């Protein structure tokens, strides 16, 4: 079984996949937040454009009103002009105030957005470094664990081989001992048989001598 297919390697691979998937999810979340911030800044410009068009329409309405008023009171042109100038000055002041407010808000928003983007980029960079470090440590630990498991398997194989060899050696010794015991028993049986035969002959000789004497 190869290292990549071993159960130990599969466990470490699952751990690395979990870490990398978590990092990918965080990265997508950060990118989404950055897109939201950029969209908000873009929408601010759109809002400003709408406000300026609204101001232009209102100013056009005011101009049309004063034009009509000037035509309706021919003898009061000076009064109308003075009043018209006052209103236009007020409109200019309002539009300048709006423009200043939009400029200040947009500048602060842009600076805040840039600060957030910088923070998020730094966060992702640090997180990426940490993830890479974790993956490297995981891979090193995997190599060490796989090597230890393989060494243990080799030791077990050697032990089994040694036990098998010793078992064969013990079996051979046992057979030799049994054979030796059987040989001794046969020799003792032959000796005993010889002794019995000698005793039998002696008894027969004694009996025969006794019969002759009678």
Describe the model.
With 214 residues, the chain is mainly α. It has one domain (3-208). It has helices at 7-72, 77-213. α1 (7-72) packs antiparallel against α2.
Characteristics:
214 residues; mainly alpha; 0% strand; rod-shaped
Q: How many angstroms does the end-to-end distance come to?
A: 97 Å
Q: Unreliable stretches, pLDDT < 50, 5 or more residues?
A: none
The total domain count is 1
Give Rg in angstroms: 56 Å
Secondary-structure element sequence?
HH
Give the biggest sheet.
none
SSE layout and pairing:
Blueprint: H1 7-72, H2 77-213
Summarize the structure.
The chain has helices at about 5-70, 75-214. The protein has about 210 residues and is an all-alpha fold.
């Amino acid at each position: 079984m190869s290292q990549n297919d071993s159960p130990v390697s599969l466990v470490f691979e699952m751990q690395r996949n979990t870490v990398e998937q978590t990092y990918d999810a965080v990265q997508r979340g950060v990118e989404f937040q950055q897109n939201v911030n950029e969209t908000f800044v873009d929408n601010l410009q759109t809002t400003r454009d709408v406000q300026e068009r609204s101001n232009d329409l209102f100013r056009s309405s005011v101009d049309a009103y004063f034009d009509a008023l000037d035509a309706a009171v021919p003898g009061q042109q000076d009064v109308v002009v003075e009043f018209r100038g006052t209103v236009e000055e007020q409109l200019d002041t309002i539009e300048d105030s709006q423009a200043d407010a939009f400029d200040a808000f947009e500048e602060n928003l842009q600076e805040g957005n840039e600060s957030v983007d910088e923070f998020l980029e730094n966060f992702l960079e640090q997180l990426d470094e940490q993830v890479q470090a974790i993956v490297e440590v995981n891979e090193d630990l995997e190599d060490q664990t796989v090597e230890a498991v393989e060494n243990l398997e080799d030791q077990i194989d050697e032990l089994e081989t040694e036990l098998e060899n010793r078992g064969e050696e013990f079996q051979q010794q046992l057979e030799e001992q049994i054979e030796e015991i059987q040989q001794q028993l046969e020799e003792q049986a032959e000796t005993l048989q010889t002794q019995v035969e000698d005793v039998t002959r002696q008894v027969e000789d004694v009996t025969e001598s006794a019969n002759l004497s009678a």
